[in-house]
Write a structure and sequence with these properties.
Blueprint lengths: L2 H17 L20 E3 L2 E3 L1 E5 L4 E5 L4 E8 L5 E3 L7 H6 L8 E2 L5 E2 L3 E4 L2 E4 L8 E2 L12 E5 L3 E8 L10 E9 L4 E10 L3 E2 L3 E2 L17 E4 L1 E5 L12 E2 L11 E2 L11 H6 L3 E6 L8 E7 L5 E7 L3 E5 L23 E5 L14 E2 L5 E11 L2
Length: about 375
C-alpha cells in the first residue's frame, strides 16, 4: 500500500473517531453546541463539555461551575426542545451578566446579611458581592470554579471540588462531590455530598433556569406550578429572610394546587413580599412526613408543549425564583435575548442561614459528619 493511501486511511479513521468522541455534540440532537467552544484553561484547570443521553433525554454538563448547560426533552408531539437556559460557549459564560445559569451554588446558597457570621467564638467576614450582603458563596463561589471530572459515562458524570480553608472567608477544607445521572425513567438526578475538617455553614443547590416550552420561546407566566408547601420564609426589604415562617393561605404564594405562575404576579405592587423580592424569590418550606426521604416538592407543566417536570428532593426547602432581573442583555445559546420572566428556577436546599443561627434548623457541618442531598428532575408529557 502506497504512502498517500495510508495517510488517507489514517485521516478517515481519525475523523470517524472524533465523530463518536464525547467532545462532540451527538448527531441528531437538539443541541446547537460545539464542545470545542468550551475547551479553555481557567486558573490552570481544563474546562470541557460532557454529553449524557438515555434515549429520550439529552443533557449537557460543563465542569465550569458544575453547570447544566442544556437539557433536551420531547414535547407531546415528539418535538425536542432545550428547556434549560444557558450559553453556547465558555467565553459567553465568562462575560455574562447572569452568572449563575445552571451552576452548582455554594458554599452557602442565598444571602448572608452583612457578610458576617459568628461560629465557635470566632467572627468570619465574607466578601460583599451583593452589597451590603454576601451572596451564593461570593464572587468566587462554586459557580466560578472549575471542578475536577473524576468519572464520566454515557449517562453520568462525577465532579469534585476542594474548597480550601479561608477561601472566600469560610473556615475549613471542604471536599465536595456532585454526581449527575440520567436513568431510564427520564429522570436527571443530582447528588451532592461534602465533608469538612472545620465546622462551617454549607447549603448547596443547582441554579438551572427552565422554560418548558424551550429556551428563548417567551414567557413562563402561563406555566402551571404546584409546590408542596404550606409556609414560606418571608424576607425583609433587603431580601434577607426575617427568621419567621408565613402561611401561604390566602396569599399569592399558595401553589398547593396548580396555578399559572403569572396569575398572582399582578399583585406585586400591593403584596409586601412580592414587592420586597421583585416577584417570586423565596424559600418554600416543604411538607413532609419523614426527613431524608425523597418527596415530590414541585411540579411545573407547560400546556403549550405538554412537557411536565416534577422535582423530588430530600431537602427541607425549595427556592422559587421567576427571573425577575433579566433584561435581555445576555444572549442565550439559541441566539435570543434572555429576558425578564422567560424562565424560572426551583432550587432545592436547606433553610436560610441567618447570623443568629437560631431561627431555622442549623446548616453547620462539623468534622466527621457528611453533607448529603439528592434531587431528581423527572420529565414526562401530557397529551
Amino acid at each position: 500500500m502506497n504512502k498517500p493511501r495510508i495517510m488517507l486511511l489514517l485521516a478517515t479513521l481519525i475523523v470517524g473517531i472524533s465523530l463518536f468522541s464525547k467532545s462532540n455534540s451527538p448527531q441528531g440532537s437538539c443541541f446547537s453546541l460545539n464542545a470545542a467552544d468550551f475547551q479553555k484553561t481557567i486558573n490552570g484547570k481544563q474546562v470541557g463539555l460532557y454529553f449524557l443521553k438515555n434515549g429520550q433525554l439529552e443533557v449537557v454538563i460543563t465542569n465550569y461551575g458544575g453547570r447544566i448547560v442544556s437539557l433536551c426533552a420531547p414535547s407531546k408531539n415528539g418535538e425536542m426542545a432545550d428547556v434549560v437556559v444557558g450559553f453556547k460557549s465558555i467565553d459567553d459564560y465568562l462575560i455574562a451578566k447572569g452568572i449563575y445559569h445552571g451552576a452548582i451554588i455554594g458554599r452557602v446558597a442565598g444571602r448572608i446579611a452583612g457578610g458576617k457570621f459568628d461560629l465557635n467564638g470566632s467572627t468570619y467576614s465574607l466578601p460583599l458581592n451583593s452589597p451590603p450582603n454576601h451572596l451564593h458563596g461570593g464572587v468566587n463561589g462554586f459557580h466560578n470554579e472549575v471542578w475536577d471530572v473524576s468519572a464520566v459515562t454515557d449517562t453520568s458524570i462525577v465532579l469534585n471540588y476542594l474548597s480550601l480553608d479561608a477561601e472566600m472567608g469560610y473556615p475549613g477544607n471542604l471536599n465536595v462531590k456532585a454526581t449527575y445521572t440520567l436513568n431510564s425513567k427520564n429522570e436527571l438526578s443530582m447528588e451532592l455530598a461534602a465533608t469538612t475538617d472545620k465546622s462551617r455553614p454549607i447549603n448547596l443547590t443547582n441554579h438551572a433556569f427552565f422554560n418548558l416550552t424551550g429556551e428563548g420561546s417567551g414567557t413562563i407566566l402561563n406555566h402551571e406550578l404546584t409546590i408542596s408547601s404550606q409556609y414560606i420564609c418571608p424576607v425583609s426589604a433587603d431580601k434577607i429572610p426575617n427568621g419567621k415562617l408565613m402561611s401561604v393561605k390566602n396569599t399569592p404564594f399558595n401553589f398547593r394546587k396548580p396555578k399559572p405562575i403569572g396569575k398572582d404576579l399582578i399583585l406585586e405592587k400591593a403584596d409586601e413580599q412580592l414587592k420586597f423580592a421583585g416577584g417570586y424569590d423565596h424559600h418554600f418550606v416543604l411538607s413532609k412526613k419523614k426527613s431524608n426521604v425523597l418527596k415530590l416538592a414541585a411540579t411545573a407543566f407547560d400546556p403549550q408543549s405538554g412537557r411536565k417536570m416534577e422535582v423530588f428532593t430530600d431537602e427541607p426547602c425549595i427556592h422559587f425564583f421567576t427571573a425577575n432581573f433579566f433584561n435581555g442583555s445576555d444572549i442565550g445559546k439559541m441566539g435570543k435575548p434572555i429576558n425578564y420572566r422567560e424562565s424560572f428556577a426551583l432550587e432545592t436546599q436547606r433553610f436560610p442561614f441567618l447570623s443568629d443561627q437560631k431561627s431555622f434548623p442549623s446548616i453547620i457541618l462539623k468534622p466527621g459528619e457528611q453533607y448529603k442531598a439528592k434531587t431528581i428532575y423527572r420529565f414526562s408529557v401530557v397529551k
